[in-house]
Design brief:
The chain is α/β, with parallel strands linked by helices. It is 30% helix and 25% strand. The protein folds into 2 domains: 119 residues, NAD(P)-binding Rossmann-like Domain (Rossmann fold, 3-Layer(aba) Sandwich); 181 residues, Dihydrodipicolinate Reductase, domain 2. The protein is globular and about 60 Å long. Pfam families: GFO_IDH_MocA, GFO_IDH_MocA_C3.
Length: 394
């Protein structure tokens, strides 16, 4: 453990681009008792000045060279938010300098680098590495997972999820980033954004054992597959389908909901970022819907887990192995599409599933976290059995 025992963790930021501005800094500023930013590095002086302006962190702590930041004695840990091709090298430099690491996902550009990340972790057993798989910390997903753990839908047997969105470069958004247009990493948008969805699938359905996929390249603004359809087999016996498109043309509004079918109920995750919903439907016709507003997609909780790991030795949920497992589902899907074959996932990288994170010392799932949750239920309704269609056996 590299962090000092007293006071907030002295954090250095390596990379101060859009991910820090839109995702990490809003969470960090809510945690002054846990973190103080003492230094920040970015190759762009302009970008560093922008961070200093909105964060009020003095430019005296800025350097364009991350090695100089790593040499500082007043940096206990680093948050690495650089382009995907640079993540591994910066993480390696940081651990070699004796710093604990919170690193953006994914774990590298390809399978070779992912496995190198695993070896890197093994070479530094005395330091904490958390990979920023923020969906593993998102309140609505954790709530859904708790319902599944409690047997709310019985035994899961089918997952169905279709996602469709419009993706073209827009100024000031993640889509405007040049390195995302011409990615130097396999899978493009699916290794960048798609691993979030894989993390959610694995969080709720468990380890994936086999994949069978097809892809299309029909978005001229990104040099990567734009469409993916993926059939999945899970270690627990369930099957599933995930279909996604990053469309170049505007498309009609779609629900983009994830449905989990069990022997005793159905669970649906839906809604936009501003109002995420988890709806449990039971065979008797009753439903319960939990609505989450003002949550931050898991970045606050992720930072809490990291600080608790450094201060109190708590285990991290976003481990290198969990991130590699997410990444390899995407890579095996690409292999499957290229070879026209079912691909097995590597047994040596099975994780036994994703643990459910809970706030340290809390009795509930959401104690001390931002946002609000409201629950509503509908009474039992009479189901007209004659209106339910059936399929006769041949």
């Amino acid at each position: 453990m590299g962090a000092s025992e007293a006071g907030p963790i002295r954090l250095g930021l390596i990379g101060t681009g859009l991910a820090v501005e839109k995702l990490h800094w809003p969470a960090l500023r809510r945690l002054p008792d846990r973190y103080v930013v003492t230094a920040f590095a970015d190759r762009s002086v302009t970008q560093g000045e922008r961070f200093s302006d909105y964060s009020a962190v003095d430019m005296a702590g800025f350097t364009p060279d991350h090695h100089r930041l790593l040499a500082r004695d007043d940096v206990d840990a680093v948050l690495i938010s650089v382009p995907i091709p640079s993540l591994y090298q910066v993480a390696e430099d940081s651990l070699a300098a004796g710093k604990d690491v919170l690193c953006e996902k994914p774990t590298g550009t390809d399978e070779e680098q992912a496995r190198a990340f695993l070896a890197l972790e093994q070479r530094h057993p005395d330091h904490t590495i958390l990979i920023g798989e923020n969906y593993l910390y998102r309140d609505d997903i954790r709530h859904a997972r708790a319902l599944l753990d409690d047997g709310a839908i019985g035994k899961l047997h089918l997952m169905a999820w279709r996602r469709a969105g419009h993706l073209v470069p827009r100024a000031g958004s993640f889509t405007s980033t040049p390195w995302r247009h011409q990615p130097q990493y396999r899978g493009g948008v699916y290794l960048d954004a798609g691993v979030h969805d894989i993390a959610q699938i694995r969080m709720l359905c468990g380890d994936i054992t086999r994949v069978h996929a097809a892809v299309q390249w029909v978005n001229s603004t990104i040099d990567s597959p734009s469409d993916l359809t993926l059939n999945l087999t899970f270690a627990g016996g369930a099957i599933g389908n995930y279909t996604s498109t990053y469309s170049e043309i505007p498309i009609p509004e779609e629900p983009n909901d994830m449905r989990l079918y069990g022997t005793e109920g159905v669970l649906v995750l839906s809604g936009p970022e501003s109002e995420r919903r988890v709806t449990l439907s039971r065979p008797d016709g009753t439903t319960q819907t939990d609505v989450f507003r003002g949550i931050d997609s898991g970045y606050f909780a992720e930072l809490c887990n990291f600080s608790d790991a450094l201060r109190h030795g708590e285990p991290v949920i976003g481990t290198v192995r969990q991130s590699v497992a997410n990444m390899l589902v995407v890579l095996r899907a690409l292999d499957s599409a290229e070879q026209g074959a079912v691909m097995a996932l590597d047994r040596d990288l099975e994780t036994g599933g994703v643990p459910l994170w809970r706030p340290r010392g809390a009795s509930g799932l959401f104690d001390g976290l931002p946002g609000e949750r409201t629950a509503s239920a509908t009474p039992r309704r009479v189901i007209n059995r004659s209106s339910i269609s059936t399929v006769d056996s041949p």
